[in-house]
Design goal:
The chain is an alpha/beta fold and 570 residues long. The chain is built from 20 helices and 12 strands. It is globular.
């Protein structure tokens, strides 16, 4: 019976084993287990973070027996560093990391993260950021954000006015016509303290500013605010604005669709736009509202002041990286000349990434990401590349491209904008991946996670037949359709990575917006099969008619997510 099962489990656990007869309890002698490498620690922390999200737990409540790595899971690139460790060693290292995180969570509030002295705790903690569990860092982030609130409750929020008809015609063809530029212009006169609001929570959250749709009376502010951010992200990743640029590796089919900060000289107007871009990143962090920005890790590294490596170059511009690598691997002048000959012939075919030639010779110049040829050294146009100086050329090209990826003066403008909304020293404890997760969320929709955080209202139950039709329909959708469903339901494509409740609270008033999703009956009366699905985007509520069959439910739901792009609903 159930009592005997529990007794067996307790007996095994008392002996240090789980139900799979794997070690999960450790004695003092076990502390002499082989030390782990930084790569193994980072992989284990990432695994624990994803496991906590899946189980809706925090790392401090996770137990060693919850870690059940299989041979199949270890084949993933993320967990590959753990392949040489036994399950027992992995569990022991988790306990060690858990203890480290507990101690550091108590220490963090007392550390000056602004300090730059090499031996102070701030820089040391920054180097240890990969050892901290995501929920430990985010709990500290939330505490600091709430403590750094500068707009009181009795102060009216700034207002950005937009034309809803213009927003439905797609992306503007000129920069000044974009919602991003319109908002940037209107926010110039707004003091930055007004954007420093408490962390968004509950059914009627406070955001940094309200978005007013001209000529419309919309109940609630969340739906229009989310739609504004969604539209702005589309504009940022288009060719209309001079902010972001598709990475060069996309031409080779690698990291296609990923963007980097556009390099080059910066005008005064562009500096203001970059500053507003940084402010929007801070606004998204305070709102805990993921935006669908697809940025390479090098952007987040530079944002937190971290140096770039050859790995970042390979990610962002694999063509240039591979070219310089081939030059380095040449072992003779003849082999080098053969490589240059092939590159020279390739230029006639307009091969992407081929270096510039002058009078049939490769010189110490290179084409920047903005398409402009640049000398790699003084008199570079007159200096020929030969086998004897190929390493100097290779290093010069790589250094030049890494400087472009870092684009320090442009990133400084973004950091200044971000610093006007959140304390910049918080970036010290967040890795590039943490920043990506916090600002951009996960690109894929976890349907089971969404199902666990859904409420049924006005007498509806999960076991109702038409509700089961609803979930069955979503399960048949592709990820792209699921993102469109999230957009239809709450006006944002991505939902937060992490716990849907603040500090583990069960009360829906403490939910992270837009959670929980709500399913309710439709308004009014009429034959269900003739009605359409509606959404109240401010409340993340689906008004679901009681359709009579799975086919009708799937057809109506697919129509809703593909044909309705209405920022005014809700």
């Amino acid at each position: 019976g159930e009592g005997r099962t529990v007794a067996v489990w307790r007996g095994l656990f008392a002996c240090g084993y789980d139900l799979h007869f794997e070690r999960c309890g450790f004695s003092a002698a076990d502390a002499l287990a082989p030390p782990s490498s930084p790569a193994q620690d980072q992989a284990l922390v990432q695994y624990v973070d994803s496991l906590c999200r899946h189980l809706a737990l925090t790392a401090d409540t996770l137990q060693p027996w919850d870690i059940t790595l299989t041979e199949a899971s270890l084949t993933s690139q993320q967990l590959a560093p753990l392949q040489g460790m036994s399950l027992s060693d992995v569990r022991l290292r988790f306990l060690q990391l858990k203890h480290i995180n507990l101690e550091l969570s108590l220490l963090l509030p007392a550390v000056d993260l602004r300090s730059t002295h090499a031996l102070s705790l701030g820089p040391l903690l920054s180097k240890m950021a990969h050892l901290l569990f995501y929920d430990v860092k985010i709990s500290f982030l939330h505490a600091v954000l709430n403590a750094s609130t500068r707009r009181s409750l009795d102060q009216a929020p700034p207002e950005v006015k937009m034309d809803p008809l213009e927003s439905m015609t797609g992306i503007a063809t000129e920069a000044l016509g974009t919602q991003f530029c319109q908002a940037a212009q209107q926010m110039l006169s707004v003091p930055s303290p007004k954007l420093c609001v408490p962390l968004a929570s509950g059914g009627d959250p406070t955001y940094a500013f309200n978005v007013k749709l001209a000529g419309e009376e919309v109940h609630g502010t969340s739906g229009s605010f989310r739609h504004f951010l969604w539209q702005v992200v589309r504009e940022l990743q288009s060719s209309v604005l001079p902010i972001l640029l598709p990475c060069s590796s996309g031409a080779a089919g690698i990291n296609k669709g990923k963007c980097i900060l556009a390099p080059g000289d910066m005008t005064y107007s562009e500096e203001k736009l970059l500053h507003f871009f940084g402010q929007l990143l801070g606004v998204a962090i305070r709102a805990d509202m993921p935006v669908a920005l697809d940025l390479l890790p090098c952007f987040w590294k530079c944002l937190r002041g971290e140096g770039l490596t050859l790995g970042d170059l390979r990610e962002a511009d694999c063509i240039t990286y591979n070219l310089t690598q081939k030059m380095l691997e040449c072992t003779s002048p003849e082999e080098f000349e053969e490589l240059l000959s092939g590159l020279s012939q390739g230029r006639g075919e307009e091969v992407e990434g081929a270096p510039p030639y002058h009078q049939g010779e490769l010189r110490f110049t290179f084409i920047g990401l903005d398409g402009v040829e640049v000398e790699l050294c003084p008199g570079g146009k007159e200096k020929s590349v030969m086998f004897s100086n190929r390493e100097d050329y290779m290093r010069s090209v790589r250094d030049f491209r890494l400087r472009e990826l870092a684009c320090e003066h442009r990133m400084t403008a973004v950091r200044c904008g971000l610093a006007s909304v959140i304390p910049l020293q918080l970036l010290a404890i967040l890795t590039a991946q943490d920043l990506d997760l916090r600002v951009c969320g996960l690109p894929d929709v976890d349907l089971e996670y969404l199902k666990r955080h859904t409420m049924y209202q006005v007498g509806l139950m999960e076991t109702d037949k038409h509700v089961q039709f609803f979930w069955n329909a979503l399960e048949s959708f592709s990820q792209d359709e699921l993102r469109k469903f999230i957009k239809f339901a709450c006006n944002q494509e991505r939902i937060p990575f992490g716990h849907p409740c603040r500090e583990g609270a069960k009360d829906s008033a403490m939910h992270v917006p837009p959670y929980p999703m709500k399913i309710a009956p439709p308004d009014g009366k009429g034959p269900p099969d003739s009605r359409y699905i509606r959404a109240e985007t401010c409340m993340f509520m689906i008004k679901l008619p009681q359709y009579s069959s799975q086919e009708i439910m799937t057809e109506r739901l697919r129509y809703a997510v593909h044909c309705r792009e209405d920022p005014l609903s809700g």
